[in-house]
């Protein structure tokens, strides 16, 4: 959850703990439904299929996932 080097060797996978991701719960729910972040950048690479599946969840399920992520302890 804290992020890591990308296994492909290019770049870094961003962290999703509250200290590394400053999105609010609504931003996370919207991203899980649409693949668009708060700046309207779209998900890419392997996240495309994740978002395609998350979009089928209910709003309640996506909200529960967002609440879980917001409750994670800091990564550092």
Account of the 3D structure:
There is one protein chain. The protein is mainly alpha-helical and 76 residues long. It contains 3 helices and 2 strands; from the N terminus they run E-E-H-H-H. It has a two-stranded antiparallel ribbon. The chain starts with a strand and ends in a 5-residue tail after the last helix. The model has no long low-confidence stretch (mean pLDDT 93).
Keywords:
globular; mainly alpha; 5% strand; 76 residues; 3 helices
Topology, element by element:
Layout: E1 4-5, E2 12-13, H1 25-34, H2 47-54, H3 59-71
Antiparallel strand pairs: 1-2
Helix pairs in contact: 1-2, 1-3
What is Rg? 12 Å
Helix percent band: 40-55%
The largest beta-sheet arranges its strands as 1-2
What does the largest sheet look like? 2 strands, antiparallel
Residues in β-strands, percent: 5-15%
Q: Tell me the distance between the termini.
A: 11 Å
User: What's the mean pLDDT score?
Assistant: 93
Number of strands: 2
SSE order, one letter for each helix or strand? EEHHH
Structural class by helix and strand composition: mainly alpha
- Unreliable residue stretches: none
Instruction: Name the overall outline.
Output: globular
Count of runs of 4 or more consecutive helical residues: 3
């Amino acid at each position: 959850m804290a992020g890591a080097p990308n296994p492909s060797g290019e770049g870094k996978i961003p962290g999703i703990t509250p200290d590394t991701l400053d999105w609010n719960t609504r931003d996370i729910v919207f991203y899980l439904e649409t693949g668009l972040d708060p700046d309207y950048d779209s998900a890419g690479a392997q996240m495309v299929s994740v978002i395609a599946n998350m979009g089928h969840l209910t709003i309640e399920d996506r909200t529960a996932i967002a609440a879980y992520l917001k409750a994670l302890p800091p990564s550092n």
